[in-house]
Specification:
The complex is a heterotrimer of chains A (358), B (526) and C (591). Helices cover 23% and strands 18% of the residues of chain A. Chain A has helices spanning 21-27, 79-94, 110-117, 153-161, 193-197, 259-263, 300-318, 333-347, and strands at residues 3-8, 11-16, 51-54, 61-62, 73-75, 141-143, 168-170, 177-179, 203-205, 218-223, 232-238, 241-246, 278-280, 295-297, 323-326, 352-353. A 5-stranded mixed β-sheet of chain A has the order 2-1-5-3-4, covered by helices on one side. In chain A, strands 10-11-12 form a 3-stranded antiparallel β-sheet. Chain A has a two-stranded antiparallel ribbon with strand order 6-9. In chain B, helix 3 runs antiparallel to helix 6, helix 3 (67-80) packs across helix 7 (119-131) and helix 3 packs parallel to helix 9. By secondary structure, chain B is of the alpha/beta class. Chain B has 3 domains: 6-176, Dimethylsulfoxide Reductase, domain 2; 182-369, Rossmann fold (3-Layer(aba) Sandwich), CATH 3.40.50; 413-524, Barwin-like endoglucanases, CATH 2.40.40.20. The radius of gyration of chain C is 26 Å and the shape is globular. Chain C has 5 domains: 6-99, Glutaredoxin, CATH 3.40.30.10; 126-336, Rossmann fold (3-Layer(aba) Sandwich), CATH 3.40.50.11540; 346-429, Ubiquitin-like (UB roll), CATH 3.10.20.600; 434-521, de novo design (two linked rop proteins); 534-590, Alpha-Beta Plaits. Chain C has 591 residues and is an alpha/beta fold. The chains are: A alpha+beta (358), B alpha/beta (526), C alpha/beta (591). The interface between A and B is large, with 116 and 152 residues.
Chain lengths: 358, 526, 591
């Protein structure tokens, strides 16, 4: 690939052709603020925070949309640029609830972070703010459009990545708004990709409202337990409860998830979980609308003893091949390995299988 | 998969047959869409207008169970138009000429009559797939869950060999695994005929290797497949069953039959995280840890071994499966003592060199795709780069035969089953997630509008679906997604379990049931 | 009795609004009903023509006989019979209805290129266009010119884009010609969106074939096989005439497959816009044709490299395209003989506001503003004083009375902080408040912002809020400086031309009329136009106590006995101005 030599803030680097100025700056370890840019989506150029000066171009340009050219000289920061950025940020904040105290996104919000870095306390442009009474009734995604900065990431991820196009820009001017057709409730695949890319608190998961933000929340990287894709997920844990699932952008699947991976986690802390071993007390064949009533709770020792004696008994009476084991595609490699070893070495039969066919 | 998921975006042509990728593997579909955005052409063959059709260049809406005819038909066109990969066929395959004769009769006209797919579409698809040397083929249970499942897969293999679309980056055959660790469970030897790493139990040399490693004599007898255990139980040959994390009372075909078999056992142990329909039948139910409560590894559909980490403690006294099995094994006089899950993987790796290079530490970032033979081996993104195990792969002549059960005047509709986007499998997890239940908590049957009209069934009305094995009441959803004469029921809902009516006829080779085709009747309920 | 009589009725949108259809119908029915010899009827033709400029005098009717052309103004259907009787049949023009000297003065300094056939031919009749050498340019380029030669002529002619930016057309075509691609497009931008502008509309309504012919020449030059006319749905008459023109041109083989048997294919589709101002911006226009929301994207890449569906695309404005057939037919020397050194040819302006002769004018580049206002426009209405001329619509600025000698060309207007723009020209008099005028334009741009970029979406809203409070007497100290700061930041940081120019009316009025802003901050609107800053009162010595104001007041703020001076209660008055408007005795005062 052809390499181009460019200078950014006095630093000369070589970057591949078709690199944007923003990406080139990143390669040179120069940070440029941005709200609407997302590395996995096509450039948008809407927030105007990533503007830079390029020698020979009379007006500042957005670095996210401008490809580098040979010999380009870029200035990413000077008083004029920073002043423009501050104006842009103030304008955004002049139309934002600024209720970070109770916002789900606080601490993980790009807008909040930029307001902090630019030290915006007063606002020269205070004025009317968009107020939306109607809330979206879908069960998964909280859409607080008053916090929306119209960066367009959700619109693009829904179209470009998910191929759904459930939302788009509507209306014009100050009243511009992102919403589903006819402002109906969102009815889509609910992959939550939009939530993942939202830089503010406009899009969050309904399930994780007021369950914990950063303080006291532990993040554990693991693997989704639904389909065979094996997406990398991060469990957010507060007080021994999984309160949220996210996925990191630098995972091999680019951090995208589906509805089940992102929202289907509350079974973990379901009250229906089995908590103690159970031994059947009801006669064989009896069923009940409350299945737990068919069993008595037992200690592990009791259960282990019963299983051991029953299996030994059947084995000695009918032979090991009268026993079978079904393992699970839901369990780990280690558990599956040990299970078949148990059936083969401890029980003594090859009657072991799992659900690969089902 | 012979390829990696990442490689999908580099494919020129993507041929999806019998896979509702967008709903069952949504994140893989994301990669396909990425490829589409880069200009890849997508071919979809499915009895339903699945969501990926939106991105397709060609959509072949075939009658359920006619895949062989379609695949042979495509092969026929590829041969006729000289698009086949002569060098590949010459160098790496055998039996080509005999096979070639076998597809002679599958002309587009003939195939159109069998499959219901317009011949122009078949020709277009054949030209696309056959015309590319960077094509990926994808399938799932829509191919395998048939009495002719094995033959379907062979017909796919023929097409792949014919074009040589395998063994290169972004080029290959990619069965997509439906569950998070089907790959791993199979790798680990939870199959009746092979030890860990697909090592044949009937091979004496292999057996002695495992006997030595495990310090005990091992059975020489062939084991029963899951689908064979059920009849064995009914016949009284199988007396006890130990089920770890499965729910056959919902997921087996013809579940009446399965439940009866489970009830007839002398002793049933079920180890699970919820009181499932199967656990209800057990003598002992053991509470186990879910994926978020334990350490270990999963292997995904692209052979990527990935680290699962404990995030929360199990509820109550629930234990992880490893501890439970070790404890019972000890009481049966075969103590297994592993200090950690990683010790298990280490032993596994010693017995199966393919994963011998994998350690937990190495898995931390992205996981590793096997084969990974040594500690410094980077893993293998795509298979068969250096050829196949056998010097020549065989073209099998496969001919189309109708499904085990065909429609008649009493059961005039074809039922096909599968998943939807929102729920998962038997639903024991997703149906406990409130928003998912709110949004997609109701079972339904998809019926073509024309059939709806004839039967006077309107959208949202309750209907009774009957097969030779049972009947269910279920809400009608009128949609063009299914063709006239075909209906679809998602498998997730035990209150209207599709598998009460599905056929438990099995594939002769691998004993997979024919979930995808059975004959049914529909009537307005009431 | 006359022979060979042609009756032409102006039926541009202005003419139709004034009753043109009824006038033409009256001619047709009366000619039928009246006892006129059949032989004579055969010699007499009647048809509509497009806009001829002086809309203020509509309905305009031409009676063309063998030896002379008589132009009537302000014609109503009931006047038709007398014209037929006396003039058409009798041979004696009705002189008191003829246009006066001001009509001729209106035309004297105009030079018609684009509009040369507009208003003279029936726009719905392709034969009428062909009769005035229509499609000769197409024949010429196909017969004897290479695409490069066409581009060369365009470059030599000095034609620059008439949509506002003034980019040299030939250079644009050349860039697209050189871009390598299997498919290219030419788009006619007929999304004229400036308030007060109707040049493009009039051209398409008056001579749609000229635009089509320009497109065919352009398509040939760049190598495009497909063209689009992006036109707003609010121009139904233009759309209808254009549709017919495209159909007729296709039937005659001027567009379609194998044009004139020369093996070149080119066809045109009409794409209706939904009336979004921003869709006049090239990249937004392209997005709109593609079925996306009309939102601009950053340039580069420019449309000549990556345009419609990602293919090289030339976008030319209606007026630009309508120039092209004449340049090809008459040569680049002829065209460039008009205008200034850098701005060649003519420009069409929509002259509106407080001007006597409002309408559509075409003048050579380089004419002075004074000539336009006083010679062509006939001066200010009602003897008021000229205050300023606003050019370039919401993206433009003001020209003050002391700059009336400015020449109309791209460079001169830019120098004083305004633009030629698409050609809107609004004349303001002493009753116009400049703050209010700027606010009006800002209101327009703010509501037409696509919402994509922050400075435009929120910045213009904040500008508007500040302007709003100033015009309501609630301005704050420092507001003018804040306006200037925010305006310059919006200009610098906005994504597209809409945002980059939206603050121009504000900056321009602050620059030239700062004292009006200061007065507002002190609670006064010097022009007495900002209603909310006014108080109304009755001037007792003039009030006759007629009660007209009392009846007109919707708020019930006026009291008083008959024939005695009335009173306005300021706390009830809603400052609507109804009393001021109805009083015949100038007894209502406002401050």
């Amino acid at each position: 690939m052809k390499k181009l030599k460019i200078t950014i803030d006095g630093k000369t680097i070589e970057v591949p052709e078709n690199t944007t100025v923003l990406d080139a700056a990143k390669m040179a370890d120069i940070a440029i603020p941005t709200l609407c840019h997302h590395p996995k989506l096509t450039p948008f150029g809407g927030c105007r925070l990533c503007i830079v000066e390029i020698k020979g171009i009379p007006r500042p340009v957005t670095s996210c949309t401008t490809p580098v050219s040979e010999g380009m000289e870029v200035t990413t920061s000077n008083p004029q640029i920073e002043d423009l950025r501050k104006t842009v940020l103030e304008l955004i904040l002049s139309d934002h609830p600024n209720d970070c105290m109770v916002c789900e996104k606080a601490g993980d919000c790009t807008l909040q972070e930029l307001a902090y870095f630019y030290g915006i306390r007063e606002n020269r442009f205070a004025g009317e703010r968009r107020i939306y009474e109607k809330k979206d009734g879908n069960p998964f995604i909280e859409r607080d459009m008053e916090k929306c900065i119209l960066c367009g990431r959700c619109v693009k991820v829904c179209d470009e990545v998910q191929g759904v196009g459930a939302i788009d820009f509507t209306y014009r001017g100050f009243k511009s708004k992102i919403c589903p057709p006819y402002e109906k409730d969102l009815d889509c695949e609910f992959c939550g990709q939009c939530v993942a890319v939202c830089p503010t608190g406009a899009l969050t998961g309904k399930q994780w409202t007021m369950k914990g933000r950063q303080m006291g929340v532990k993040e554990v990287d693991t693997v989704c337990s639904y389909c065979g894709t094996g997406c990398n997920i991060t469990l957010h844990v507060k007080d021994n409860t999984v309160v949220r699932v996210t996925s990191k952008e630098d995972t091999w699947h680019e951090g995208w998830l589906c509805i089940k991976g992102r929202f289907g986690y509350t079974f973990i802390n379901s009250p229906d979980r089995l908590k103690r071993p159970l031994i059947r007390t009801a006669p064989e064949g009896q069923s009940s609308p409350d299945p737990l009533s068919l069993f008595k709770e037992a200690s592990w020792n009791e259960a282990f003893d019963l299983i051991a004696s029953k299996l030994s008994g059947i084995k000695s009476k009918h032979g090991a091949d009268a026993i079978g084991g079904l393992s699970s595609a839901r369990c780990t490699n280690e558990e599956n390995y040990i299970f078949q070893k148990f059936i083969r070495a401890a029980v003594g039969t090859n009657n072991v299988d799992h659900c690969a066919r089902l | 998969m012979t390829n990696s998921i990442k490689e999908i975006e580099g494919m020129e042509v993507i041929f999806i047959i019998g896979s509702n990728t967008k709903e069952t593997h949504p994140v893989i579909a994301n990669r396909m869409i990425k490829a589409y955005r880069k200009g890849a052409k997508i071919i979809v063959a499915d009895p339903r207008k699945v969501p990926m059709v939106r991105f397709s260049e060609v959509f072949m809406k075939l009658k359920p169970g006619t895949d062989i005819a379609l695949l042979n038909g495509m092969a026929h066109v590829i041969l006729k138009e000289g698009l086949h990969n002569k060098e590949f066929i010459e160098a790496k395959t055998e039996n080509f000429d005999e096979w070639k004769e076998s597809v002679e009769e599958y002309t587009p006209d003939y195939v159109e009559r069998i499959t219901g797919v317009n011949k122009d579409e078949i020709i277009k698809a054949a030209r696309l797939y056959g015309g590319s040397r960077k094509a990926g083929l994808f399938y799932t249970m829509g191919i395998t869950q048939h009495t002719c499942g094995t033959e379907n897969v062979r017909a796919i293999a023929n097409l792949v060999m014919l074009t040589g679309n395998i063994g290169r980056e972004s080029t290959g055959v990619n069965p997509l695994r439906g569950q998070n660790n089907v790959q791993g469970a199979s790798d680990a030897g939870c199959l009746p005929n092979v030890y860990p790493g697909y090592q044949n139990t009937e091979d004496a040399e292999v057996r002695s290797k495992f006997e030595k490693a495990w310090g005990t004599a091992l059975s020489q007898k062939k084991g029963l497949k899951a689908t064979e255990m059920i009849p064995a139980a009914l016949e009284g040959k199988l007396k006890a069953l130990y089920i770890m994390g499965e729910n056959p009372a919902v997921t087996d075909p013809n579940t009446h039959h399965t439940v009866k078999a489970l009830k007839s056992l002398d002793f049933l142990v079920v180890q699970d995280i919820f009181m499932t329909e199967t656990a209800e039948l057990a003598d002992v139910v053991l509470p186990s840890a879910c994926f978020a409560e334990k350490d270990g590894t999963f292997s995904n559909t692209e052979r990527r071994v990935q680290r699962v980490k404990k995030a929360v403690n199990s509820p109550g006294e629930a234990k992880d499966d490893l501890s439970i099995i070790m404890e019972i094994s000890k009481r049966l006089g075969y103590p297994m003592t592993y200090g950690s899950p990683e010790d298990v993987l280490t032993e596994f790796g010693q017995l199966w060199p393919t994963i011998g290079g994998i350690t937990y530490q190495r898995l931390n970032k992205e996981g590793i795709q096997w084969p990974c033979l040594t500690k410094d081996h980077p893993g293998t993104p795509y298979l068969y780069k250096d050829g196949f195990k056998k010097p020549k792969i065989h073209f099998h002549a496969i001919s189309y035969a109708p499904p085990a059960e065909i429609t008649d005047s009493e059961y005039p509709f074809i039922l096909t089953t599968g998943r939807n986007l929102f729920q998962y499998h038997a639903g024991s997890m997703t149906r406990r997630v409130k928003p998912i239940e709110t949004h997609a908590g109701e079972p339904y049957v998809e019926i073509n509008p024309e059939d709806g009209k004839i039967l006077n069934i309107k959208d949202g009305q309750m209907v009774t679906v009957t097969s030779r094995r049972g009947k269910i009441n279920i809400k009608a959803r009128i949609t063009n997604s299914v063709s006239k004469g075909t209906i679809f029921i998602p498998m997730h809902y035990s209150e209207a379990a599709a598998n009460i009516i599905t056929n438990d006829a099995l594939d002769a080779h691998v004993k997979i049931p024919e979930y995808k085709v059975c004959a049914v009747n529909i009537k307005k309920a009431g | 009795m006359n022979k060979n009589i042609t009756i032409q009725v102006c039926m541009g949108t202005g003419g139709i609004a004034a009753g043109g259809s009824e006038v033409l119908a009256a001619f047709e029915s009366l000619m039928r009903e009246k006892n006129i010899p059949a032989e004579f009827k055969k010699e007499c033709s009647m048809h509509k023509v497009g806009c001829r400029g002086l809309c203020a005098k509509d309905v305009l009717v031409d009676i063309i006989t063998d030896d002379r052309r008589t132009i009537y103004q302000y014609i109503k259907p009931e006047m038709v019979e007398r014209i037929i009787d006396e003039h058409v049949v009798g041979g004696n023009p009705v002189s008191e209805w003829e246009v006066a000297e001001d009509y001729h003065k209106f035309h004297e300094k105009q030079v018609k290129v684009v509009l040369s056939d507009c208003g003279n031919i029936d726009p719905e009749d392709i034969n009428a266009y062909i009769a005035v050498d229509g499609y000769k340019a197409v024949e010429k380029v196909f017969a004897s010119m290479t695409p490069e030669e066409v581009i060369d002529i365009m470059k030599k002619s000095g034609l620059r884009g008439r949509g506002g930016a003034g980019f040299p057309t030939g250079v644009k075509w050349e860039a697209c010609r050189k871009a390598e691609a299997g498919q290219k497009y030419i788009i006619c931008n007929a999304d004229e969106g400036d308030p007060g502008a109707f040049m493009d509309r009039a051209v398409i309504e008056g001579n749609p074939h000229a635009v089509i012919e320009g497109m065919v020449v352009g398509a040939y030059a760049i190598g495009a096989s497909k063209g689009y006319v992006y036109i707003r749905a609010e121009y139904p008459l233009a759309v209808e005439r254009l549709k017919k023109a495209i159909k007729d041109a296709r039937e005659r083989g001027f567009i379609g497959k194998n044009i004139l048997g020369k093996g070149f294919d080119f066809d045109i589709k009409i794409k209706l816009g939904a009336g979004a101002f921003v869709c006049g911006e090239e990249t937004a226009l392209i997005a709109s044709i593609e079925g996306q929301r009309g939102m601009p994207r950053a340039k580069p890449p420019f449309p000549v490299h990556r345009g419609l569906w990602g293919k090289p695309t030339v976008i030319n404005n209606v007026e630009t395209l309508a120039n092209i057939p004449y340049i090809i037919k008459k040569g680049h020397e002829w065209f460039s003989s008009y205008g200034t050194e850098k701005s060649k040819g003519t420009k069409v302006f929509a002259l509106t506001g407080k001007i006597k002769n409002s309408g559509l004018i075409e003048v050579p580049m380089g004419i002075t503003l004074k000539e336009i206002i006083y010679d062509i426009g006939g001066g200010i209405e009602n003897g008021k004083a000229l205050k300023a001329v606003q050019t370039g619509g919401p993206s433009g600025g003001c020209i003050t009375t002391d700059m009336l000698d400015i020449t109309m060309d791209y460079e001169s207007l830019a120098r004083v902080g305004s633009i030629v723009g698409s050609g809107g020209m609004i004349v303001l008099d002493e009753d116009d408040c400049m703050v209010n005028v700027a606010k009006y334009f800002l209101q327009f741009t703010q509501s037409e912002s696509c919402g994509k970029c922050v400075p435009c979406r929120i910045g213009t809203k904040r500008l508007l809020e500040i302007m709003d409070r100033i015009t309501k007497g609630a301005g704050r100290q420092g507001d003018i400086e804040l306006l200037e700061k925010l305006s310059s930041d919006i200009k610098a940081a906005s994504l597209c031309g809409l945002g980059q120019t939206a603050p121009n009316p504000v900056l321009s009025t602050i620059k030239y009329f700062r004292e009006e802003y200061d007065a507002h901050l002190q609670g006064k609107c010097p022009a007495k136009a900002c209603r909310e800053m006014l108080t109304y009162h009755i001037i007792e010595e003039f009030c006759k106590g007629c009660g007209a104001c009392l009846r007109a007041c919707p708020a019930g703020a006026i009291t008083g006995e008959k024939k005695k001076p009335h009173k306005i209660a300021p706390e009830i008055c809603i400052k609507c101005g109804a009393c001021f408007d109805v009083c015949k005795f100038k007894a209502v005062g406002k401050e």
